[in-house]
Amino acid sequence: MVPAEAERADDKLVRKVVNQKNQTAKTKKPMKPATGAVSAPVSRRGDIEVTEEKEHEQTKKKEELARKVEELRSEEEAAMSKEQNLLEEKANVKEALERKQGTAEKANFSVSAATFS
């Protein structure tokens, strides 16, 4: 069995701890909620500067987009030009072969005509 004096001492310690927790909870003051406008400029001039920065960023984005569009257009144009050149080259080769065959046929016709004469 635990002596009565020991129980009393433990009760006093427990009461002290509980009282301390209650006191700290009571002494804390409620915190003010943080506002989202902490970094927002206060003056009208600051509003103008923020607006100008946003416009400048938008302008930069538009210029970058326009540059990319122009670059893609020029690449597409170069690819189309290259394809057109290949088609023209194929057509020229085909025409040259047809002329060569026509010349060969004429030569053969001339030889065969000379043989029959």
Automatic annotation (TrEMBL):
This protein's record includes keyword Membrane: yes
Q: Which UniProt keywords apply?
A: Cell membrane, Coiled coil, Endoplasmic reticulum, Membrane, Transmembrane, Transmembrane helix
Cellular compartments annotated:
Cell membrane; Endoplasmic reticulum membrane
Stretches the record annotates as Disordered: 1-66, 98-117
Q: Enumerate the transmembrane spans.
A: none
Entry keyword annotation includes NAD: no
Query: What is its membrane topology?
Result: Single-pass membrane protein
Primary residence: membrane
Listed Basic and acidic residues bias regions: 1-14, 44-66
Listed InterPro entries: PPI1-4
- GO CC terms in record: endoplasmic reticulum membrane; plasma membrane
Q: Which family does it belong to?
A: Belongs to the plant Proton pump-interactor protein family.
Q: What is this protein called?
A: Uncharacterized protein
Organism whose genome encodes this protein:
Vitis rotundifolia (Muscadine grape)
